[in-house]
Amino acid sequence: MKALIAKRIDSGTPDTSEIRELARAAGYDIVGEITQSRTADAALQLGEGKANELAEKAAMSEATTVIFDNRLGPYQMYNLGQLLPEGVEIMDRFTLILEIFGQRAQTRKAQLQVELAELRYELPRAEAKTSLAKRDEHPGFMGLGEYDESREHDIKSQISRIRDDLEQIEQNEQHRRERRRASGFDLVALAGYTNAGKSTLLRRLADDLDVDENEELHPDLDSTAESQDRLFTTLGTTTRRADIEPRDVLVTDTVGFISDLPHWLVESFKSTLDSVYRADLVLLVVDVSEPIDEIHEKLVTCHDTLYERNEAPIVTVLNKIDAVSDEELEEKAAAISALAPNPVTVSAREGANIGELLDRIDQELPDWEQERLVLPMTDDTMSLVSWIHDNAHVEDVTYGDEDVLLSFEARPTVISQARSRASDLETASA
User: Residue 57: which of 22, 88, 29 has the closest Cα?
Assistant: First the structure.
């Protein structure tokens, strides 16, 4: 698929690097671009002359698609479609993002979130068609086709149904998180922008591959986490065990942030971000090889999103230190120190400083507590002893004729459960 890139900004020099990456992620071959610095044209987004130039370039390059790094209204899409060669598809930035999401969606939850985002994108357009067609008493909206008032109602009904389905999935996932936490697991979430290296970092931290956040098998559950230099490699959540003795830690990789996402799109994927909001610790992964202004802007956006609902501590991880000099790393760390105090610097690709990161995770997670239990010797005692071995760090076990003495270290929730079960043994033996 051949695509032309188009972008307009109010002033300055248009940067098309990200929209190009998005287009490549969707499978398009970029055959050229048209950019312009001027105020938006209500009819064409670009100025008339630049729009005609776009049409000529599309014909010469035999492009099948024109991708705008702007939000296009229905009227603008129609007018551009009249200028472009017949059969050339037009999409804006958000249509492209939805297409990528659709390609990456493997699980039921991800598919529902994509469907919800598509409907939320379509709804205001359906509402505009209906209201304007009614106002003008015209059977179509500026040549965009017949309006159907029932379509608006159908979209709203589908949105309501999908929200209910996602809420049920989230309740099931929350129950699994609660069971894991009750079983002694600390929950760590990876957050950050796409291509910051989260999937590569997860692979470095992974100890086993037996745990996944979704009921269906996630495609990343193979010998290594998928880590490619492309956007949106991870759409669903992937959870794996990390080896941080004596803790049992589960690390979850989630969908990456991307700049300039509208509220309705972020809202559609908020159930995925619940894995971040409900974690015990968040690792905010940053690509330190990017320009400092871009790093700063992304950190501000991430903080706005994370601190809105997140109560867990956030540790900034400056990744890709193999791509910068020591002097550049020091300068950038100093420049963002207000947003990222005491960051951990790593290279997930090369494995540099991963040990330091594991130590920092251990320091930031809730402290374990010491406990000493005396258990009566009953038929069920060994079952409890085995459970404590599985969910805590046992320091000493002494078997007597009538009781068992255990000394162990564990999360407070595990200690609470152990005490409760020990009390049940006492009651049963009385």
Answer: 88
